[in-house]
User: Fold this.
Amino acid sequence: MRRKESDERMETKKLMATFAILIIALGIAGFAYAHWEKIVTIDGTVTTGTLHVKPSFSAELVQDKDVAQIIYEWNGETNTLTVKLSNVFPCLTVKGWFDFENDGTIPVKLKEVKITMPSGLSYDYNPKTGEFTIVESTPIAENVIAIGKLDLSRWSGFPQIDPQQTVYVDFKLHFEEALRQTQEYTFKIQLIFWNWNEVK
Amino acid sequence: MDAKKLFATFAMLMLALGIAGFAYAHWEKIITINGTVDTGKLNLEIIDVSDSDDPTKPDPGKDKNVADTEIIIDPQDPQRAIVTITNAYPSYYVYIHVTIRNVGSIPAKLKEIKVNAPECIEVEGWDHIGEQLEPYPKQQYQSDYSGYIHVKQCAEQGATYTFTIEFIFWNWNEVP
Assistant:
């Protein structure tokens, strides 16, 4: 008799558990179906511009005989302009200009100029006048081997260059009497441009 | 045997009478309730858009007009706005705004804003989580929602990035 009552209680519990599970499942299903949804979407595309400055160069040697030579070439892959002066002599004057074309789509601003001079040479530049001197240090003395001047008057909006704008830096370089014979001087000038808004 | 036949006949007779008796024994009156449930409609549309980059003026916070932002309502889908930013550069930013109207018949509530954007484009969407939009033309029938797009330093030149901002509305009574 007791066993029968126990079995009945067990059955009742099972039934209640099943019922509870069913209710919970229905509740979950009810929740899932209970909301309606509407999504308002903003789809965006951002296309970035390009930043690129292409340099060029033009120069002439002021001499009454065809003694010194100048050659230059442009490497588009490395964005490098290589200029070579050979058979240079004292009193030689080189005149010309660098031009920089912004062929990108973003305005650029000159952030920095890095000049790497050969060992023993140094330079001094006056940004107000544009004048510079190149000095060679020897064990005996410091000799000015060249003087020159940079003219930025044809760089409208210096130090910025707008897209499609070309600016010019005119220069004049004069080799002095202290220039030594049979020397090779290699130097590197890097002009570092950033998008204009990032340069203070 | 006769007794058995008699008994069977009697039983069948009783059964037949019982069935007939049941059929005739009740009276019936049916009251009918016919019901129709017309459900409402949850529906929202973008009715106006704008951005903070005036094409005739310098870019926001800048001194030059370089990049451009255009935002339109999708002519095929009024629940979608399309933002197109061109010639962007690091540090460029723009704010966009959409005005959303409840054009359905059920109050809607903004449940969530989901943003999906690449690493180098910062995108935010905000305003009015939990705000209720009553069906037009009741009061408070539309509201403005905003987004912010910022080109980060890691953005590549000449690249195209896409992003999505989703404003997810539910029927008002399901949003806490």
User: Anything to note?
Assistant: The longest strand of chain B covers residues 160-171. The helical segments of chain B are 2-25. Chain B touches chain A through 55 residues (CB under 8 Å). The domain at 44-174 of chain B is CATH 2.60.40 (Immunoglobulin-like).
